[in-house]
Write a structure and sequence with these properties.
Largest sheet: 5 strands, mixed
Shape: globular
Distance between the termini: 87 Å
Strand content: 25-35%
Strand order of the largest sheet: 3-31-32-33-34
Radius of gyration: 26 Å
Number of strands: 37
Low-confidence stretches: 171-181
Helix content: 10-25%
Number of helices: 9
Structural class: alpha+beta
Mean pLDDT: 92
């Protein structure tokens, strides 16, 4: 006598899969990886149930698995290029979907005759797998959740290219050396520390909210801004051209564009450049995602010189694209070719020196002075390395394995705060004491904490405290001992600026909201929040005087913030 189908283990595993994949991440956003890997374990449990414990006829058991494999192989040839470039994305998405669909089919068809039952199986497998041939991926969020759209819908970049764009206004007067010293010279401001000084803003936004000056679409890319002499500079992708763009600060109208015929794309972050321009002495220095390094005249975009860092360094383009923002030190400009520092002569663009090849990095070179010695620090996959800017000679290093993405911070007393992303002790924030004595340089760990685990969200240091993201939640640490003092406010994988003169944080959330938060250690206090920009926002904001600039991979906007006392 034929035994009835044993359904309950499959149903239990399917319900558990849906819970860990969708419900848990919705409640605990930083638990995405638990949901992701948990769903695949549940999918494996469903397949084990189906093959060995379901009591289905062996022809059905093996036939269903074979049909699922064939559907995967056929669909892999039909998916959109954004999914195909993700290599295993289809399998990561489709296998759990197929597993749940298999349970649903088994439950719905258990009383059907063989013909309708097999027809329904074919339809179920086709729909659960073939769906992924109908979508494209627009990247992922900070917690790695995929952003799916129908493949026939145009991307924001395609819509932008289809529009009649403003024509650049033409050559502007080249800024003088004195003029370009003011403003926001590049990535995270003058000190690459995200700190704004000399400005005090009004905090009652219910009465005096920020005023939008302009808003305009922009090509994809994760660049921030450099600002000087009433002009702003950023990088974007426009079709097959990687573009350095100059816009008027107060109107947002284009002034000039420099184009290089290259395009970078990767599935997680999408298309476009990753680095931020650097403005110095009448020139704009830009580093593209594929390794094109340009020096341009700040006034009209004229090309002064250009280098191919891939060829100069003997490097290869990393999977995530080159993301280092150029650093000007004296008469050289330095970039990080992912795993090594490369310095060029400012005047001629000729290579001056190359550093040792280290672990890969998302970070940018960082200038600092320790024990009165000027040096350039780069965070890499194997820790921190500091070199002499004159010739690239290594001064010291500090081992800490992990994925380096952020800039270091100097705290009172000369110690450093560094961060990394990984597992175990290779994650979180660390205080390092660096000293220079008769025996040379030494670096020593003072403490390491997982109480703040910044991902690609840079942190700031203010009055003995660090403010940054622990996953997607803002937090405050005491830099003396690494204790977390508070944690609050969900902003996704956003970015922030510190208004040092009045103990305030300007936070731009991953969802494009602008929030005002107290930079004080007693408790988390959000003073105001308002929508600022549409779409996923990973780019660092910039601020010049009372003008705040925000952009993402679709649009950019400028707000005039209310000043204190207005």
């Amino acid at each position: 006598m034929k035994k009835p189908l044993r359904l309950w283990p499959g149903l239990l595993a399917a319900v558990l899969l849906l819970l860990v994949r969708f419900v848990v991440p919705a409640i605990v956003p930083d638990a995405f990886f638990i949901g992701f890997f948990g769903s695949h374990l549940c999918a494996l449990a469903i397949l084990v149930w189906w093959l060995f414990f379901s009591r289905a006829p062996w022809s059905e058991r093996l036939g269903a698995i074979l049909l699922m494999v064939i559907a995967l192989l056929v669909t892999s040839r039909l998916v959109h290029e954004s999914i195909a470039k993700g290599v295993v994305l289809l399998y990561l998405w489709a296998i759990p979907t197929q597993a749940v669909a298999l349970v649903a089919w088994a439950a719905a068809s258990r009383r059907l005759s063989s013909g309708p039952r097999y027809a329904l199986l074919a339809a179920t497998v086709l729909l659960s797998t073939g769906f992924f041939a109908l979508v494209r991926i627009a990247g992922v969020t900070g917690n790695m959740a995929s952003e799916l759209h129908w493949r026939w819908t145009p991307t924001p970049e395609q819509r932008l290219l289809a529009q009649a764009r403003d024509t650049p206004a033409g050559s502007a007067a080249a800024p003088s050396v004195a003029e370009t010293k003011a403003g926001w010279p590049g990535f995270r401001g003058p000190g690459r520390d995200g700190i704004v000084r000399g400005v005090r803003i009004g905090t009652d936004w219910s009465k005096s909210p920020p005023v939008e000056l302009w808003r305009r679409p922009v090509g994809p890319g994760w660049s921030s801004f450099a600002v000087g002499s009433g002009l702003l500079y950023t990088q974007e992708q426009l079709g097959e051209d990687e573009v350095v763009s100059c816009y008027d600060l107060t109107t947002g109208k284009p002034v000039w564009m420099h184009r290089d015929p290259t395009r970078f794309y990767e599935t997680a972050g999408g298309a476009g450049p990753r680095a931020t321009p650097t403005l110095s002495n009448g020139r704009v220095y830009t580093f593209g995602a594929t390794g094109i390094f340009n020096a341009l005249a700040a006034g009209d975009g004229a090309l002064v010189w250009s280098r191919n860092v891939v060829a100069d360094a003997g490097a290869k383009v990393p999977d995530w694209g080159f993301s280092s923002s150029p650093l000007v030190v004296g008469d050289i400009v330095i970039v990080a070719a992912a795993s090594q520092l490369v310095a060029y002569d400012l005047a001629s663009g000729e290579p001056r020196w190359k550093g040792a090849v280290r672990g890969g990095s998302f970070s940018s070179p960082h200038f600092l002075t320790i024990d009165a010695v000027a040096q350039v620090l780069l965070m890499g996959r194997d820790g921190a390395t500091s070199v002499a800017p004159a010739d690239g000679t290594k001064l010291w290093d500090h081992a800490w394995a992990g994925v380096a993405m952020l800039q270091p911070a100097v705290i009172t007393g000369g110690d450093l705060l560094i961060s990394t992303t990984g597992t175990g002790r290779s994650i979180g924030l660390r205080r390092v004491a660096v000293t220079h004595g008769p025996g040379g340089w030494t670096s020593q760990e003072r403490w390491t904490t997982t109480a703040m685990k910044p991902y690609f969200n840079d942190f700031v240091v203010h009055k003995g405290h660090a403010y940054g993201f622990d996953g997607s939640i803002l937090s405050c640490l005491d830099v003396e001992d690494g204790r977390r003092l508070w944690k609050g406010g969900r902003y996704g994988n956003g970015q922030l600026l510190l208004l040092a003169d009045q103990d305030l944080l300007l936070v731009v959330s991953e969802q494009g909201e602008l929030a005002l938060v107290s930079a004080t250690p007693d408790k988390f206090t959000e003073l105001a929040r308002l929508p600022a920009i549409e779409g996923k926002t990973w780019n660092h904001p910039a601020m010049v005087g009372d003008i705040l600039l925000i952009r993402n991979d679709q649009e950019m906007t400028a707000f005039r913030l209310p000043l204190a006392g207005d």
